[in-house]
Amino acid sequence: xxxxxxxxxxxxxxxxxxxxxxxxxxxxxxxxxxxxxxxxxxxxxxxxxxxxxxxxxxxxxxxxxxxxxxxxxxxxxxxxxxxxxxxxxxxxxxxxxxxxxxxxxxxxxxxxxxxxxxxxxxxxxxxxxxxxxxxxxxxxxxxxxxxxxxxxxxxxxxxxxxxxxxxxxxxxxxxxxxxxxxxxxxxxxxxxxxxxxxxxxxxxxxxxxxxxxxxxxxxxxxxxxxxxxxxxxxxxxxxxxxxxxxxxxxxxxxxxxxxxxxxxxxxxxxxxxxxxxxxxxxxxxxxxxxxxxxxxxxxxxxxxxxxxxxxxxxxxxxxxxxxxxxxxxxxxxxxxxxxxxxxxxxxxxxxxxxxxxxxxxxxxxxxxxxxxxxxxxxxxxxxxxxxxxxxxxxxxxxxxxxxxxxxxxxxxxxxxxxxxxxxxxxxxxxxxxxxxxxxxxxxxxxxxxxxxxxxxxxxxxxxxxxxxxxxxxxxxxxxxxxxxxx
Length: 486
Prior knowledge:
Layout: H1 2-14, H2 20-23, E1 55-60, E2 83-84, E3 92-93, H3 111-124, E4 128-133, H4 138-151, E5 158-160, H5 164-169, H6 178-187, E6 197-198, E7 201-202, E8 210-211, E9 213-217, H7 218-223, H8 235-249, E10 254-256, H9 264-276, H10 293-306, H11 319-327, E11 331-336, H12 339-347, E12 351-354, E13 365-369, E14 373-375, H13 383-393, H14 396-405, H15 413-416, H16 419-424, H17 426-434, E15 438-440, H18 449-465, H19 470-485
Parallel strand pairs: 1-4, 10-11, 13-15
Antiparallel strand pairs: 2-3, 5-14, 6-7, 8-13, 9-11, 9-12
């Protein structure tokens, strides 16, 4: 078992985008004036017909295979730096075992290679040749994509995280063909597509998205006299546990709770609490809803949780400092994406993992985190072939490979809901269940998205860290945001 955990940890190292995807992008999909999305039937066929000359498909895909899983390269003493370049694929480790049979444990060093190899084989069978491009991630990617849309010069498939819903709202992306959309709705976990739904149509797909769960250090919880195997089910229960752990820690360790920094890393975590409490950041038109009653209740709860942290930790602008505190045994509870499981195992932390507790009037909900959404631009030259690529991403072969890693859960229901998967990966099955229902992505505001996010983040920080009236602070933030967006 321990060998399996260490092997899986190496997989995380290969997924080098890491937390950059969760925190460096600022949701700024530039406001580009385009016509509203129209329905199209040019991708309705279930297959792209083979042609003598074939199709060359340009894909933004470098590094996006496993975005957002976290960076744990510091966990291993020796880093495998010797790489050789395959003629057609990304660099790969020279000493890795590339053998893989369905249902077997994946050699963690070669997951990105195997993933892309399956996609390549499927495309070759349809006489489609892939050409991949790397435009970076976070803000550099957003800037390049914005410029590409303005110039009407885009790859056939683009990829991104928090900016992608905004591109859909601006009419820059092609809606999925009707047959494809129906299949996805019936067979794929909502977290893989729901954040990319706009006006009843789907505009993007993520093959292995993350959502948040509650994690806790069983050792610290037990030291506080609590049952380390029992997860708190409500906000009141969670707060009570945090208080007891903080009291037991006597300044050596604290209860913790959720990262609340004024950045995307914070919004992606405590945004889940807003969703659960039937609040949120914006309405369907991208207008801010900062001062709703539900949000005020959630921010007041965050203010309470702040007292169960070392001074300044919860609202620290550097999210890495917060997660380091969990890894070092300085806080007992936190909300984070599924990679927290493998990182904790590698560090030897005996951890628990459960759904995020509910508020008294709340409902289950979540925010996607570390989700690399693939979409087809309106100006793409090979739309039929592009949709074939996305079909391959949710194919049984690719989703089985994801399942066999044990690091993320597959989104294809037939695999994730099988008795075999539930038995082999009970925690990731739990993650799969969390990907259903009310799952949202971070919104793009109707105008000046970066400025509006900063107003919100600053207001929440002030509400949590000072004795100011929360309603007055959030009312002021709402007024400032409305002045920008209207």
